[in-house]
């Protein structure tokens, strides 16, 4: 390693956190600390094993495995948050011991909308990079990650109105240079909210419908003549909310996403997998945020509201059973 290593903390070391830990680690330019929970023992003993259809088999050496950010006892250049967005408001205080607002960049790699807001409230002046990933990965055993061929990510700033744009851009480009050196597929985009909301339209439809029906996407679409119109209506409501918030989406996205899913092999979704594993699902960040914004803006969100309320009840049952 030449020069001072970039200090990187990965918070939320599941499938996606481990995949991007692998990407960043293989640059040879970082010192990697991870906060692990259920996979702490496995990762502490063996690091991370990753089998990727694109990158082959790798053993990722982790410099430090900790249970909490406070235990690390240091500040970081980048804190990559790839935890499930279940209780997003509780996380900024968890990472706070590792944040120096003048120098730490917070990187969020999650599905959902509004993910950045709790971080901005706690860290009004920190640089925040928001990422939308289409990478497909799972962690079948603690510390063992399987990555499919799906690999793509869009990254961009969640701008700090009071910050220095040149400094924020420099931090974004520095992170991008690590992703390039780590040989992953990604693009830097000018307004990440467009990609974030496009993905929310996708997730609000496929994650909800595959979870509620326990069908895959194609079986759902073929289930009756009403399935495609309902899917389109649901997507249309999320798009209307995004448009009212000033995010540049339009209804042609519906055709694009329907065409995209039909060209893919049938899939379930991370929400359905969480449901099947009895784990809390990302209902609020994927559906609750658009529903709340829709109500505030007096937009008809009756379809997503119905689905949101039902999934919230199912989530409550899962959470009660898992505590
Ligand atoms: N997997 C995929 O293919 C894709 C996932 N995504 C998104 O990426 C994000 C991460 O998903 P994924 O990696 O699949 O999820 P996983 O369930 O594989 O991993 C989540 C990890 O975060 C940890 N975690 C959860 N909540 C907290 C918390 N509050 N504090 C600290 N750690 C926490 C979990 O620990 P523990 O095990 O102890 O619960 C687990 O290690 C999600 O937003 C998801 O929607 C997006 C595209 C594809
Ligand atoms: C992996 C992918 C892209 C599939 O829709 C996803 O985002 C999810 O399941 O949550």
UniProtKB/TrEMBL annotation:
EC number: 1.1.1.169
Alphabetical GO biological process terms: pantothenate biosynthetic process
Transmembrane annotation, as ranges: 6-24
GO molecular function: 2-dehydropantoate 2-reductase activity
Domain of life (superkingdom): Eukaryota
Catalytic activity, as annotated: (R)-pantoate + NADP(+) = 2-dehydropantoate + NADPH + H(+)
Start and end residues of each Ketopantoate reductase C-terminal domain: 191-314
GO cellular component: cytoplasm
Enzyme class: oxidoreductase
SUPFAM superfamilies given in the database record: 6-phosphogluconate dehydrogenase C-terminal domain-like (SSF48179), NAD(P)-binding Rossmann-fold domains (SSF51735)
Function: Catalyzes the NADPH-dependent reduction of ketopantoate into pantoic acid.
Similarity section: Belongs to the ketopantoate reductase family.
Full protein name: 2-dehydropantoate 2-reductase
Naturally occurring in which organism (per UniProt): Thyridium curvatum
């Amino acid at each position: 390693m030449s020069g001072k290593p970039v200090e990187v903390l990965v918070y939320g070391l599941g499938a996606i956190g481990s995949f991007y830990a692998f990407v960043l680690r293989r640059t040879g330019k970082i010192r990697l600390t991870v906060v692990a929970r259920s996979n702490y023992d496995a990762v502490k003993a063996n690091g991370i094993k990753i089998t990727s259809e694109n990158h082959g088999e790798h053993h990722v050496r982790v410099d430090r495995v900790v249970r909490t950010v406070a235990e690390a006892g240091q500040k970081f250049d980048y804190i990559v948050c790839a935890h499930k967005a279940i209780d997003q408001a509780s996380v900024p205080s968890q990472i706070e011991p590792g944040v120096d607002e003048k120098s730490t960049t917070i990187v969020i790699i999650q599905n959902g909308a509004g993910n950045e807001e709790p971080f901005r409230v706690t860290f009004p002046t920190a640089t925040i990079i928001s990422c939308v990933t289409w990478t497909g990965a799972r962690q079948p055993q603690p510390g063992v990650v399987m990555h499919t061929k799906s690999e793509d990510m869009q990254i961009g700033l969640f701008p700090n109105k009071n910050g220095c744009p040149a400094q924020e851009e420099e931090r974004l480009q520095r992170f991008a240079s690590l992703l390039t050196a780590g040989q992953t597929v990604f693009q830097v985009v000018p307004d990440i909210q467009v990609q974030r909301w496009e993905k929310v339209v996708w997730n609000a439809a496929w994650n909800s419908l595959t979870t509620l029906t326990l069908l895959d996407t194609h079986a759902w679409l073929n289930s009756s003549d009403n399935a495609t119109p309902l899917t389109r209506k649901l997507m249309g409501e999320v798009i209307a909310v995004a448009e009212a918030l000033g995010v540049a989406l339009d209804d042609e996205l519906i055709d694009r996403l329907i065409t995209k899913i039909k060209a893919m092999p049938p899939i379930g979704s991370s929400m359905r997998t969480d449901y099947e594993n009895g784990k809390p699902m990302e209902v609020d960040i994927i559906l609750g945020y658009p529903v709340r914004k829709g109500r505030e803006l007096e937009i008809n969100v009756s379809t997503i509201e119905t689905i949101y309320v039902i999934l919230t009840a199912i989530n409550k049952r899962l959470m009660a059973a898992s505590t």
